[in-house]
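Me: I hope this is not a bother. Any chance you could explain this protein sequence and its structure tokens? It all follows right here:
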Amino acid sequence: MRSLAALNARETPLAIATICAGVAFLVANDAIAKLLTDRYTPIQIVFLRNLIAVPIITTVIIMAFGSACLRTRHLSLHAMRGALMTLGAWLYFTALIYLPLAEATALVFSAPIFITALSVPLLGEHVGWRRWGAVLLGFAGVLVIVRPGSAAFQLAALLPVGTALCYALFMISARWIDRSERLWTMMLFAMLFPMIYAAPFAVANWVPVQGGDMLLFLGLAICGSLGLALIGQAFRMAPAAIVAPFDYTALIWATGLGWLVWGDVPLLWTILGAAIIVISGIIIILREAPRAR
């Protein structure tokens, strides 16, 4: 029998490739959303993306695991998490109207900082001085990008920070769900409830969808669903300390797409702040790894 170490050695490169592919799909999701914000409200984009994604995910779940996987014992918790997802997506898609893709992406990566800080009051976890130092370093990176008080400051830069906070609360709340709950079941409800919440606001401000844009909305749903599924799979294939740092390849994709599609070249402040946030996030990941094991 092959040793576990040999198995991990074989699966680690595949896990890294998997998370890189998942991240690329999520950035493509963001780029498509940014294109759509020229013609549709952010809440309509949230609604239509999830309206298309929910049947796709439901079909995959039934075919792979059976209809029993559609049931949950944590419906109220999923409803609360869905509200966080709705608010976070709306804030982010609104930010994409005003900010370059790379800048919005960099600010969203402050989520691990919020997760670490909020794990103390919400989960009762102990955070040592090194992780607190990483948290402060990460917030410094956010301030470098946002630059409050400067002439370049704009309120829209706070929107992706709000998204990061919503995402942090969303991730922390996953700890309150029974470990027997399948990843796909959690993913389904994370799409279903935002669709329900967004529906009345989308209908009230409805803009007729142009024929060609339906392909963009389909691409939005497919890229978002594939991205989440691949990232989730990567974390099941290898330890978080190995795969999580590759989440930051999103900054490369976002910078490249921003330049190719919109001609955006990141400011030096954005690059510097993003680098600080990445360093902070990696420190947090490396400090979390031994405790998680």
